[in-house]
């Protein structure tokens, strides 16, 4: 991939700079083994994920790093380049040892996922001192918990709709409605936070409504009208959560630390992205599966709603702590 894509990647570095190109490469290099973990028995799948996608990521990172020393050094340019290139050798050696140890302790698919996590976390600017701040810890845990149930409704609404006798067309329209509501929520809650409530208050409200609508409306939504109401409220608030996170972080930690705090927070969301919906799927199957009707979805619904409300409580605590800090300053 480095040889084939040398000219296009060189243009990308020139157009977007080495930092952005390297970040894109790190994402691709992390997605390669992550997606490859789901197709370890498929040679074509591994060629696409570990071959093409991981190779593309490595090529983007390589060219971004390879050209940087030459722009900073004149007299000792070759020595600087050699030191930079030696990092690839050291990193390759370390990764080989780590991979061997992982394979001895884990299955091949989880080894792939562990490597993906190592690569993706390597992108993050890590600040250990943040873990000494109770507000950061609560915000991190709260938003991470919120990610577990956040995608349960859009993934399960089509299946739920057909389980209670609706057509596949109606199920598709419900998902479309959820996505439209999510888009509207990102804008609407953003405007509301700026004009009236503030970021933390708006985020707390979003999570409260996500949890309440899941626990109160969804279990009773056995016909189209209440299901539409649930989809609209839940979609609006789920979308609003995403748009409010950067503003919330900036309001607590300041704009100067936004990049560090935001990247660390997003990194911990990977667990919710990866496990949130599968846990709900496991609960659905454990209680009879879609063929049993609406009753089989109850445990998954309570799981999603309960975690959303727990996340809301943690964010409300952050709001109270932040108010106390502001009151002391006044």
Quickly describe the structure.
The chain is an all-alpha fold. The protein is built from twelve helices and no strands. Helix 3 (77-105) packs antiparallel against helix 4 (108-121), helix 7 (168-197) runs antiparallel to helix 8 (199-217) and helix 8 runs antiparallel to helix 9 (224-253).
How does this structure look, described?
By secondary structure, the chain is an all-alpha fold. The protein has 2 domains: 6-121, no CATH class; 128-329, MFS general substrate transporter like domains (Growth Hormone, Chain: A), CATH 1.20.1250.20. The chain is 82% helix and 0% strand. The protein has helices at 6-36, 43-72, 77-105, 108-121, 134-150, 152-163, 168-197, 199-217, 224-253, 258-268, 270-286, 298-329. α1 crosses α2 (43-72), α2 (43-72) runs antiparallel to α3 (77-105) and α5 (134-150) packs across α10 (258-268). The longest helix is centred in the last third of the chain and has 32 residues, at 298-329. It is globular and about 70 Å long.
């Amino acid at each position: 991939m480095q040889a084939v894509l040398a000219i296009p990647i060189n243009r990308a570095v020139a157009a977007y700079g080495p930092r952005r190109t390297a970040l894109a490469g790190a994402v691709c290099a992390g997605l390669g083994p992550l997606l490859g973990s789901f197709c370890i028995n498929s040679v074509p799948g591994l060629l696409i994920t570990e071959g093409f996608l991981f190779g593309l990521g490595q090529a983007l990172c390589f060219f971004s790093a390879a050209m940087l020393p030459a722009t900073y050094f004149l007299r000792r340019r070759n020595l600087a380049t050699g030191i930079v290139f030696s990092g690839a050798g050291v990193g390759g050696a370390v990764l080989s040892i780590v991979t061997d140890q992982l394979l001895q302790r884990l299955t091949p698919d989880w080894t792939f996922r562990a490597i993906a996590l190592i690569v993706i976390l390597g992108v993050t600017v890590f600040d250990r001192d943040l873990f000494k701040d109770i507000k950061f810890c609560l915000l991190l845990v709260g938003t991470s918990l919120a990610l577990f149930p956040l995608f349960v409704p859009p993934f399960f609404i089509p299946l739920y709709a057909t389980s209670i006798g609706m057509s596949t067309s109606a199920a598709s329209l419900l998902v479309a409605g959820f996505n439209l509501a999510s888009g509207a929520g990102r804008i609407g809650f953003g405007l509301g936070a700026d004009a009236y409530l503030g970021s933390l208050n708006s985020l707390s409200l979003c999570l409260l409504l996500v949890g309440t609508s899941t626990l109160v409306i969804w279990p009773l939504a056995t016909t189209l009208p209440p299901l539409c109401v649930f989809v609209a409220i839940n979609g609006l608030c789920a979308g609003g959560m995403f748009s409010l996170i950067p503003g919330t972080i900036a309001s607590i930690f300041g704009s100067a630390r936004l990049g560090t705090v935001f990247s660390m927070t997003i990194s911990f969301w990977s667990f919710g992205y990866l496990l949130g919906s599968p846990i709900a799927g496991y609960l659905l199957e454990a209680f009879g599966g879609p063929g049993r009707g609406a009753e089989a979805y109850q445990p998954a619904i309570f799981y999603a709603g309960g975690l959303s409300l727990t996340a809301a409580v943690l964010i409300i605590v952050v709001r109270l702590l932040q108010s106390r800090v502001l009151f002391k300053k006044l």
